[in-house]
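STRUCTURE REQUEST FORM
Protein name: NrdH-redoxin
Source organism: Streptomyces dysideae
Requested output: structure tokens
Priority: standard
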Amino acid sequence: MSPIFRRRATRAPQERLVTLIRKPGCHLCDDAQSVIEKVCADLGVPWEQKDISQDPQLHDQYWEQIPVVLVDGAQHTFWRVDEQRLRKALTE
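Status: completed
Returned output:
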């Protein structure tokens, strides 16, 4: 029997979700938001932001890495967002 290979299903940009986990007064968070806004607007990808000061679970999980970017619920990066890397993650 031949092995079965699974292709990763490609999702349309509108079916993706970028989440920015941030905190108030964080200049790195502001920088990350600027990149996310630009990339998501260009690609038509929805995005949201969550404040660790309002969510104890997010605070416990991410407080040392703020800002954190999730793509479809999985951690993509933290501290700095590379525009090209984010674009690639959302289009592959």
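Reviewer notes: The longest helix spans residues 27-43. The chain has a mean pLDDT of 90.
Form closed.
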